[in-house]
């Protein structure tokens, strides 16, 4: 049995306590001989800053580069609101994405039947919802230069960020979206603001060409990102795969996640390109939710998104489809048994903490 | 009685037919001696391009500059999808905003009681919703330079847009938001992505200072724009006034409008700074909805957002508070009588077309 290197980066806030439940499942797989994982643990975000003044140390970056997959919790919190921009908690996450070249961010927005009632949307609007947002993750306004604040004198400053996309960046994220659409509803909706942004014009042009030349069997639609946001709220089931840039993807995937009423449940995968020789791709898995500092350390956080991120990791990084299926089934079985953490609690269910939820899922696994 | 110069720019699609209903109301006010308007009509968007190859002609720009207020319908449609970027329909709208220096875009998101059922959100989430989005309209990624596509050779291109804000731009939009909050719930939520964008860092810094130094009586909160989008979907009533930049404002105001289920009802105002001598401010009023090419020309479009834009114009540009109140009441009375256009139709109501809805509102006015 091949041994895989897994790096755990719990980060800050509820990242820490939810990662504990993942550790228990990984140990179980090792002990039972279901898989062989060598795990290491590193610091990222505010906790890394506290330890060594950087949002991620060179040593832990090296661990990430050498691992077969990274499991990431969450970063940030009011404690670090005042730290310098370059070492703020988010800088650790952004560096991981950029240095590992994880350009494809897969964010499924699925409405768990047991949780449809938790959505602020009407039942019929979200029941059975299953869409996938494919967000470009290493380009756009997140990384473009110049990115700076200049002092103009007279008490005036100028803040600048640069949105930039090159053809190859749009092509490769487009291909990821089209490939995934073929395994699902065979439909891709590309979103940009081509009516205002030149990068949007290029985005639209490249997507159209890739669709026509390489994926003529997949239906391709285009929407302006603002209309796309509206349509997500109006009738999200019209979508199958949505492909969009880093910044629009940030907003739209969060909105899509919130629609489902299952925010605490949703995992995501960030993938690099397959290595030319080994075919292996760098990958990082993380919950869509953030570090939730308001409830951190209380043992009440929902560990499901973190555990579901492990399932995604088993599936996408190691091809352990059966184990991934089992883990996902353990999650839904536990929900069907009526166990709920506070964030998804509803009448008639049984409220449990992080540990108890994790243990219940492990017991069903 | 002072005579005011009103420029009507119906634009494209349903802009044309809904503006007809505004014309009828303006004529009525003139005839009854309620007000004295001198109206002119111009072309903008695709219709301007068809007439003279530009999204707005110099002559009609001049009319706009000389008028006391502009009423704008909507622009765009698939017919003009292939026209060059510089003369695409939206360029007309963007030029009006920029050349008239209309930096403050006020977008109320109100849930009309008669229409709460039309929302995709649960009744209790949107019932009675009344928030105001204040969007910066002449800066940011919409206008920053460079904004270009460069050919890099090898089949590669690079698309660039520039997000830029200076201190004074943030200050003045902040002041508009704080002033308006004082007339409402006394609360401002500022949204940006300071964890990723330098312009967001500056935005946050300036808002905080303006709030502390000039409006310490108004509660100021900050939210990351992605969380803000989630919170809008989760529980929109937590907000009073939201202030944000051009691009985030574009997305978030559309989402807020869609939440209400009243998209066809919502007007907006775009205001400039008061003139140093006359105290007058340039202003343009337009529906939040777009040109809806799919239903254009069929006489079924909802004219209410356009008529409500006239009401906003009476209120903000001419201080005709009583007339504005009357017109808004005429709208709600007509809705209470059970009249509905197709987009807001529900069981038990009576479906009417654009003309009939306009006439009914005029009759109640
Ligand atoms: C934490 C932050 C930098 C990050 C982002 O903006 O990408 C987060 O919002 C996300 O969506 O993963
Ligand atoms: C038509 C388009 C240029 C415009 C914008 O992006 O500002 C529209 O979406 C709006 O919100 O008024």
Automatic annotation (TrEMBL), chains A, B:
**Site label Important for catalysis, positions:** 142, 193
Name its pathway. Amino-acid biosynthesis; L-leucine biosynthesis; L-leucine from 3-methyl-2-oxobutanoate: step 3/4
Instruction: List locations, semicolon-separated.
Output: Cytoplasm
* InterPro entries the UniProt entry points to: IsoCit/isopropylmalate_DH_CS (IPR019818), IsoPropMal-DH-like_dom (IPR024084), Isopropylmalate_DH (IPR004429)
Primary residence:
cytoplasm
PROSITE patterns tied to this protein: IDH_IMDH
Instruction: Recite the UniProt cofactor note for this protein.
Output: Binds 1 Mg(2+) or Mn(2+) ion per subunit.
Q: Does the keyword Cytoplasm apply?
A: yes
Which residues make up the binding site for NAD(+)? 77-90, 290-302
Entries under Pfam families matching the protein:
Iso_dh
Binding residues for substrate: 97, 107, 135, 226
Q: Report the EC code(s) recorded for this entry.
A: 1.1.1.85
Give any single GO term for biological process. Answer: L-leucine biosynthetic process
Q: Name one GO molecular function term.
A: 3-isopropylmalate dehydrogenase activity
* UniProt domain Isopropylmalate dehydrogenase-like: residue ranges: 5-361
Top EC class, one word:
oxidoreductase
Q: Name one GO cellular component term.
A: cytosol
The cofactors it requires, by name, are: Mg(2+); Mn(2+)
Residues the entry annotates as binding Mg(2+): 226, 250, 254
Top-rank taxon:
Bacteria
Keywords assigned by UniProt? Amino-acid biosynthesis, Branched-chain amino acid biosynthesis, Cytoplasm, Leucine biosynthesis, Magnesium, Manganese, Metal-binding, NAD, Oxidoreductase
Q: Which family does it belong to?
A: Belongs to the isocitrate and isopropylmalate dehydrogenases family. LeuB type 1 subfamily.
Family annotation (PANTHER family): 3-ISOPROPYLMALATE DEHYDROGENASE (PTHR42979)
According to the record's subunit comment, the protein's assembly and interactions are:
Homodimer.
- Know the name of this protein? 3-isopropylmalate dehydrogenase
Organism (species): Faunimonas pinastri
């Amino acid at each position: 049995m091949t041994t895989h290197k897994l790096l755990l980066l719990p980060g800050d806030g509820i990242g820490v306590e939810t990662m504990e439940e993942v550790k228990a499942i990984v140990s179980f797989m090792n002990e039972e001989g279901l898989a062989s994982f060598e795990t290491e643990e590193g610091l990222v975000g505010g906790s890394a800053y506290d330890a060594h003044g950087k949002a991620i140390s060179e040593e832990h970056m090296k661990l990430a580069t050498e691992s077969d997959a990274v499991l990431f919790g969450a970063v940030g919190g009011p404690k670090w609101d005042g730290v310098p921009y370059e070492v703020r908690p988010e800088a650790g996450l952004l560096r991981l994405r950029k240095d590992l070249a994880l350009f494809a961010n897969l964010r499924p927005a699925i409405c768990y039947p047991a949780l449809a009632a938790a959505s602020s949307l009407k039942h019929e609007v979200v029941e059975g919802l299953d869409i996938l947002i494919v967000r470009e993750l290493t380009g756009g306004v997140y990384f473009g230069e110049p990115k700076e604040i200049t002092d103009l004198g007279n008490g005036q400053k100028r803040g600048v960020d640069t949105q930039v996309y090159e053809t190859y960046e749009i092509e490769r994220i487009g291909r990821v979206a089209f490939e995934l659409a073929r395994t699902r509803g065979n439909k891709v909706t590309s979103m940009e603001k081509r009516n205002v942004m030149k990068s949007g014009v290029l985005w639209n042009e490249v997507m159209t060409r890739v669709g026509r030349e390489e994926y003529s069997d997949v239906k391709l639609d285009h929407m302006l990102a603002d209309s796309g946001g509206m349509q997500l709220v109006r009738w999200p089931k019209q979508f199958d795969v949505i492909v969009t840039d880093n910044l629009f993807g940030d907003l739209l995937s969060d909105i899509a996640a919130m629609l489902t009423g299952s925010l605490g449940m949703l995992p995501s995968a960030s993938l690099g390109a397959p290595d030319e020789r080994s075919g292996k791709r760098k990958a990082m898995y993380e919950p869509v939710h953030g570090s939730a500092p308001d409830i951190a350390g209380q043992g009440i956080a929902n560990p499901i998104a973190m555990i579901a991120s492990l399932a995604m990791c088993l599936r996408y990084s190691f091809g352990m489809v059966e184990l991934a299926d089992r883990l996902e089934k353990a999650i839904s079985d536990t929900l069907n048994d009526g166990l709920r953490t506070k964030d998804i609690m509803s009448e008639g269910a049984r409220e449990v903490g992080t540990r108890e939820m994790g243990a219940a899922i492990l017991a069903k696994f």
